[in-house]
Request: fold
Amino acid sequence: MPATKNYYDILGVKENASAEEIKKVYRKLAREFHPDRNPDKPDAEERFKEIQEAYSTLSDEEKRKEYDMMRKNPFGGFGGGGFSARNGDRFYRAPDGTYVRYTGSPGDFEGAFGDGGGFGDIFSRIFGGGADADPFAGRRGGRGADIESTVRLSFDQALEGGKTEVHLPDGEKVRLTIPKGVRSGFKIRLKDRGQEGPTGRRGDLYVTFEVADHPRFRRDGSDLYVSEAINAFEAALGTTRNITNAYGKRIKLPIPPGTQPGAKLRLKGQGIKTEKRTGDLYVEIEVTIPEKLTDAQQAALRKVAEENNLL
Reply:
C-alpha cells in the first residue's frame, strides 16, 4: 500500500507538538508559501495546499487521533472486526465506528477489500484522494477545519451596519456585511469559507461581533436607556427636556409634575433600529436636591410646606 503522508514532517513539528505550536507554525508557513506572495514560484501553490492539508488534520483533535492511529497501525481499522456479517449482509466498519452495509456479492466484497489492491486504494483515498473516491471523507478528514473569528465594532458602527473584512490565518481576506443594529455576541456563519481540507472541501467561518459600550447609553436588546437629571422643583412642578437619541435626533420629552426619582419615561421607536424591528428609548429620571438655598428660597419653600401640612 502507498505510504501515508507525514503531516508532522510537512509542517516541521514533532509528533507531540501542542495545538498552539502547530497553529503557530501553520500560520508562518501559510504566509510564506501563499500563492499570492509567490507568483514566480509554480511549486508554491502545491506546497501551500500540502500545508493546508496537514493543518486540517492536525488542528482537529479527533482527526489527529485517527491519523496517529492509522500511522501506527494501518491495518487496525480493517482487521479483527473491520468487516462483519449480520443476517447474511456484510458490513464495513469505518474508522469513526459506524457501519455501512456492503450490497455486492461475496466475490465483489473480497475484490474490493482483499488482496487486489483494496487496502492501498482505500488508504490512498482516505489520505490522498478526492471526496468522490472516499465515501467517508465528509465525516473524517475530507472537510477542512472551521475557523472562529471576532470582529470588534464601535457602538456607532454597530448602529449603522456596513461592510468589513475578516483576515483568515492563511492571509485570505473575506468581506462580510455588518447587520444594522448588531448586538455584542451575535454570531454569523459563512459556509465553506474555513480551512481547505485534503479533498478540497472547506470548513465554515464563524464570525462573532463584539460591540463597545457607549458612554451615555445602556443597551438591552433593541432598547436603550439613558439617565436625565432634574432638580426637586422640576420633579414637583413638571418640566421638559430635549433628549438626543443614539442617531443624533433631538426629541422633546415632557416630564410630568410629581415625577419620582428612578421613574422611566418611554420614547417609543427611538431605540436601536435593526432589519426586523426598532426598539424604544427609556429615559431614567434622577432627581437632584439643592445643597444650598438662599434665605428667601428657604422661607418660600417652608411657607409652601407648612400650608400643605408637609412639615
The longest helix spans residues 42-58. Confidence is low (pLDDT under 50) at residues 75-140. Residues 218-307 form a domain with the HSP40/DNAj peptide-binding domain fold (CATH 2.60.260.20).
